[in-house]
Known about the structure:
- By secondary structure, this protein is an alpha/beta fold.
- The protein is 37% helix and 19% strand.
- It has 9 helices and 13 strands.
- Strands 3-2-1-4-5-6-11 form a 7-stranded parallel β-sheet, sandwiched between helices.
- Helix 1 crosses helix 6, helix 3 runs parallel beside helix 4 (134-152) and helix 5 runs parallel beside helix 7 (240-251).
- The chain folds into 2 domains: 2-166 and 210-233 and 274-287, 3-Layer(aba) Sandwich (Rossmann fold), CATH 3.40.50; 168-205 and 237-270 and 294-304, UDP-galactose 4-epimerase, domain 1 (Alpha-Beta Complex).
- Helix 1 links the parallel strand 1 and strand 2.
- The structure holds nicotinamide-adenine-dinucleotide (NAD).
- Nicotinamide-adenine-dinucleotide is lined by residues 7, 9-13, 31-36, 52-54, 71-75, 88, 110, 112, 163, 165-166, 174.
Amino acid sequence: MKAVVTGGAGFIGSNLALELEAQGHEVVVIDNLFSGNMANLEGFSGDFVNADIREINWNEIAGDADAIFHNAAITDTTIPDKELMMDVNAHSFEKLLEFAIKKNIKVIYASSAATYGSGKMPMEESQKPAPLIDYGASKVEMDNIAKKYIAKYPDAEIIGLRYFNVFGPREKFKGKSSSLTYQWIIKMQDPEAKTIKMFKFGEHARDHIYVKDIVSANLKALEFNGSDIFNVGTGIGTSYNRILEILNGQMGKNCRPEYIDCFLKTYQGFTQADTTKAEKELKFRAQWNIERGIGDYIEFLGKEY
Ligand SMILES: NC(=O)c1ccc[n+]([C@@H]2O[C@H](COP(=O)([O-])OP(=O)(O)OC[C@H]3O[C@@H](n4cnc5c(N)ncnc54)[C@H](O)[C@@H]3O)[C@@H](O)[C@H]2O)c1
């Protein structure tokens, strides 16, 4: 199979591209290195196309593809340019779908738990979107575009994956947008580190999912026949106090939480996926619980640094 991975020099895209290649597929990565980095693709031997998805000639690069895994996006949620966010994340996605449908190419795209905002929990695919920030709104727009094309082209294959809070190898180039789990591991590698800052009182809880599970969900989506949108989470919310406790335990540290006021205007304090639909229809169930995921990640980072 020939697979195209947009955003393949980024965190999730690179993990996916490397696994697809390891499974023997021909893989082409498209990325403009906005937040991605070639270092994420160490060991990758497929083609790399440095291009902006807003301007790309899809036919030239992906005309003979069997599937497109669309992960390219502006992922820094603090970028204040709403138009840019919509343009890159949503409008270029519509152009991609127009092309893929004509060519009968399967599209698996990254949506987000940010579409749910502070909506009811556990979060179900069918509940009303309630994004708190422009980034979330751009992902709702992507889902709306997907739904429009799914209704118009019943034979098309368009699968949306609403990733929850992803952590794991190859996220360092995301900087301040990387997971707090990553940022805390790096901080705690410093022998002088005694405290870890978190919003009062550490009880915000997110559905943290290990990137290897995200890759598995994409592979399940490849086998799925038809079109739909699925949550990709573990179904469990874990508090930041608990994350610190796990890190202390696994790193042999004793860092204390330092509680600070939440300085963000809007904050999605809690997420938890309802995994029923993904388990039943996509046949996806997360295999890495938070403790094992963090353990595997610490081992990876130990080798890297
Ligand atoms: N990491 C998470 O927790 C999470 C959660 C939900 C959804 N997602 C979604 O998953 C996808 C991948 O996110 P990630 O965490 O790997 O972030 P990332 O920033 O590492 O990856 C995004 C990639 O897209 C590339 N890109 C940005 N604009 C581009 C453009 N105009 N043309 C071509 N490439 C462009 C970047 O250079 C980067 O490599 C995104 O769509 C994101 O919205 C991520």
